[in-house]
Amino acid sequence: MNFPFYIAKRYLLSTKSHHAINLISAISVLGVAVGTMALIVVLSVFNGFDDLIRSLFNSFNPDLKITAVEGKTFVADSVKFDTIRKIEGVADFAEVLEDKALLRYNKKQTIAIVKGVSENFAEISGIDSMMISGDFILKGKNEDYAVIGQGIAYFLNINTDINLDYQIPMAVYVPRRTGKVTMNPEQAINKKYVFPAGIFSIEQGHDSKYIFVPLEFARELFEYSNEVTAIEVKLSDRANIKNIQSEIKDILGSDFEVKNRYQQDELFYKTMQSEKYVIFLILVFILVVASFNVIGSLTMLILEKKFDISTLRSLGTNLSSIKKVFLYEGCMITLLGAVYGLIQGLLICWLQISFKLVKLQGSGTFVIDAYPVTVKVADIIAVLFVVFLIGLVASWYPVRYITKRFIQSDRI
């Protein structure tokens, strides 16, 4: 049997002569447990929000997006894009033409990005699953329809649940791209009408910015013939995105840029990751402060056991073994707190996932009604590693200096 570990276990489980040491040891375990629990819960909530936002963005952003390196628009070369369509893992792609325009509905008006899309866009993006009112309809028998972001609909006071709104067109204004200089302002503006058919909701930034219209409508509005601003590519479920992205780049050459979902909103995803790391560091710092209880507990234990140390020294126990006794003691306190905190953290996460105990304020206007939680094994491993490392350092300090001081000064 490991002699230092055996003694350390007896010290941890036995009743000390001074009840203050028992209390400090219990507080040490509790402090480590609370810190571990907080890390598990907070990181899991961040994971939940991250997964939620990614799923929402996945309904708007394509798997891959092809744009021109120079210029706003380009003509999709039929030969090259027929080759792309035949790549294994490419399910389909949609043509997109978008630009800014002025929207007017009744007496209200706002600026938005009009995004003209081909008929298969709903299958490419899954935007139809984000509808909160009306339907994703862009083309009727004789009319063009628009699907509008919730923020724009709110600002223009559009309600597609009322049948009357299908009879009230929305005017779309853009400056003429190919027009001549004229004294008549109306001749310098393109104006077209479209009927609101549905309202989508993804997140505030997109909801207050975009409306979807038929691609032909957008081309007539912006005065283009067969140009597009982007090609949005949908991949099959098991496709290797990185390999296909590289293959498409080789086909199109340096004149085109191919971005995956992360690259399309790179700044946003980096910001979310940075926030998660900052919160993690803040909680780790709090855990470091809580670890001072471990230092205090070991210091008082060494003071109480000075006669035991003297006896062990008289029996021939070397200094290294005595240090290991108290080092193991500190590690066991940390490990006990970490395991207890892990269990409590996972229990809280399970309760939130199963019963949604903690609700979101104003959840009626959001896509979920409670805080989302996603537990990841990598986070659990990282938390346990950091907690144990902090506990090891906290245990090493009093063992390294205080034990050596007592033995070398012959005060025991």
SSE topology sketch:
Layout (H helix, E strand, L loop, with lengths): L2 H11 L5 H40 L5 E5 L5 E2 L2 H8 L4 E16 L2 E10 L3 H5 L5 E4 L10 E5 H7 L13 E6 L13 E12 L3 H4 L2 E5 H8 L4 E2 L1 E6 L5 H12 L3 E5 H4 L1 H25 L1 H13 L1 H9 L4 H37 L21 H32 L4
Parallel strand pairs: 4-9, 6-8
Antiparallel strand pairs: 1-11, 1-12, 2-10, 3-4, 3-7, 3-11, 5-8, 6-9, 7-8
Helix pairs in contact: 1-13, 2-10, 2-11, 2-13, 2-14, 11-13, 11-14, 13-14
Q: How would you describe this structure in keywords?
A:
14 helices, 2 domains, two-stranded antiparallel ribbon, 412 residues, elongated, 19% strand, alpha+beta
How is this structure best summarized?
The protein has helices at 3-13, 19-58, 78-85, 121-125, 150-156, 204-207, 215-222, 241-252, 261-264, 266-290, 292-304, 306-314, 319-355, 377-408; strands spanning 64-68, 74-75, 90-105, 108-117, 131-134, 145-149, 170-175, 189-200, 210-214, 227-228, 230-235, 256-260. The chain is an alpha+beta fold. Helix 2 (19-58) runs antiparallel to helix 14.
